[in-house]
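In the design runs reported in the main text, the only information available to the sequence generator was the tokenized backbone. The following block is the verbatim input for one such run; it is reproduced so that readers can re-run the procedure and compare outputs position by position.
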């Protein structure tokens, strides 16, 4: 069957994924249906040529209860996609060409459909009733399948749970369609955001990072943006991004969710505690703290424990699980920033399967979709290929070094790299003669809505943390990297980035399993 139409509507996408299947086999009850409305809609589509524009993004063939109606609508769908006229004659002829005319009731039945309705005035309303009945049937089918599998002792309960949640999510996704908006409403929203940005004297309109120079370039992480931060092992990308997330949550009270696919939640919290208290992680692990260090520990973790910080350490997180969890976090806690550590450890689930590049492309597109749907920035850490190490010179990373898929570069609004020249034995800038010891660079290689710049940061090896390179003067008083935030004073804010000892972290190892599929 020919079908050249893009299925952009969530109901249509859901319907095309799940073909109609027999259900209600054991209940003995008639499933939800609206056959009269189905006949009215099909008749309206053949009666008025513009009616199809009102329903094409609401219904798919599987939305119809009667199989004959599915075939008729699929024919109409195909004619529309091929820019052919739609009326009784063209639909009848196309069904005849397909060998399905007699099955659907013949030419007489097709002509009778147009006699059931006088105009197509309410066709969109009727179509949405059909779509609602389809969703009801899908919910019943999913529930019935789940109940049947739950009684089967051989069923893996976690597989069943994942399958049920995945199926229900598809139904929920079908109800989240977004209609077009007239430009005046969109413009009003844009003006409001501009006015709100004007209220921020520091120029940060998005989620602040706590790194002054970086916030000047990006104005904070912006809504709906997908930000990729990539680096070779040993550069400190994990230390940077979790430090930054800590700043957002603790200093600026922005709800942050971290999906830690590589590190357990306890390990992550231990590193946060190490950074917050400036007690080496090794001492925390062994518990051999001095009395004053115990006091320091309890005195400094209060703000961290009260911060809106949410950690999920599910290994091999699938795209579906990620979307579902992000939706719940947004609904329940209004999260403002999402961090993934790291992208290559995610799985495509049942979709995007094939070669690894296709799967990474699917994951990347899905991350961008979630960012846009929830209107929150998502930061995804990513690995770089070995080509960085084989190059000569300063070995600064490039966009072509992104591992496994060019789709990451395409989907991302910002692509950046963490680079420490000291790691490669480069201790002096050849041009300026400045020392490069303890210097880290945040290289913005792609910025869809801004400039490409390199932001220099200070890397403190003792705690493997990044902080602002220098203090600065904003015209209203000196702000230093270690000042404490005082909103009442109006003159100072914290720009300190806490870190931790990452000496045993894979991120700081000389190399990781580069031969793995990730």
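Verbatim output:
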């Amino acid at each position: 069957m020919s079908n050249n139409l893009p299925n952009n509507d969530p109901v249509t996408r859901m319907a095309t994924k799940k073909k109609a299947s027999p259900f209600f086999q054991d209940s003995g009850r008639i499933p939800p249906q609206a056959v009269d409305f189905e006949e009215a809609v099909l008749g309206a589509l053949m009666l008025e040529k513009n009616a199809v524009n009102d329903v094409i993004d609401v219904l798919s063939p599987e939305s119809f209860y009667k199989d004959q109606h599915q075939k008729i609508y699929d024919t109409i769908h195909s004619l529309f996609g091929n820019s052919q006229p739609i009326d009784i004659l063209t639909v009848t002829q196309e069904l005849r060409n397909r060998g399905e005319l007699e099955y659907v009731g013949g030419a007489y039945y097709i002509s009778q459909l147009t006699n059931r309705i006088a105009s197509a005035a309410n066709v969109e309303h009727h179509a949405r009733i059909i779509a609602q009945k389809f969703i009801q049937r899908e919910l019943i089918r999913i529930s019935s399948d789940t109940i049947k599998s739950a009684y089967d002792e051989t069923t893996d309960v976690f597989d069943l749970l994942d399958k049920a949640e995945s199926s229900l999510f598809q139904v929920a996704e079908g109800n989240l369609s977004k209609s077009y908006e007239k430009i005046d409403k969109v413009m009003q929203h844009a003006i409001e955001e501009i006015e709100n940005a004007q209220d921020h004297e520091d120029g940060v309109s998005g989620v602040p990072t706590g790194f002054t120079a970086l916030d000047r370039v990006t104005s904070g992480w912006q809504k709906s943006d997908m930000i990729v931060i990539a680096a070779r092992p040993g550069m400190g990308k994990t230390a940077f991004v979790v430090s930054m997330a800590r700043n957002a949550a603790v200093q600026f009270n922005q709800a942050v969710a971290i999906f830690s696919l590589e590190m357990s939640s306890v390990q992550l919290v231990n590193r946060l505690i190490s950074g917050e208290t400036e007690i080496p992680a090794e001492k925390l692990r062994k518990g051999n703290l001095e009395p004053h260090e115990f006091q320091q520990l309890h005195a400094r973790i209060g703000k961290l424990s009260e911060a809106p910080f949410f950690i999920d350490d599910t290994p091999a997180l699938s795209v579906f699980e990620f979307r579902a969890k992000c939706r719940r976090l947004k609904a329940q806690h209004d999260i403002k920033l999402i961090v993934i550590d790291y992208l290559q450890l995610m799985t495509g689930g049942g979709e995007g399967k094939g070669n690894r590049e296709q799967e990474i492309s699917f994951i990347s597109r899905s991350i961008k979709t979630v960012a846009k749907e929830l209107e929150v920035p998502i930061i995804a850490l990513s690995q770089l290929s070995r080509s960085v190490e084989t190059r000569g010179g300063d070995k600064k990373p490039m966009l072509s070094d992104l591992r496994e898929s060019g789709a990451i570069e395409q989907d991302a609004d910002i692509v950046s790299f963490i680079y420490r020249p000291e790691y490669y034995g480069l201790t002096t800038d050849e041009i300026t003669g400045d020392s490069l010891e303890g210097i880290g660079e945040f290289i913005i290689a792609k910025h869809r809505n801004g400039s490409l710049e390199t932001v220099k940061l200070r890397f403190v090896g003792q705690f493997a943390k990044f902080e602002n390179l220098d203090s600065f003067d904003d015209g209203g008083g000196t702000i230093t990297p270690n000042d404490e935030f005082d909103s009442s004073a109006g003159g100072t804010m914290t720009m300190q980035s806490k870190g931790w000892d990452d000496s045993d972290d894979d991120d700081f190892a000389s190399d990781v399993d580069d031969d793995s599929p990730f």
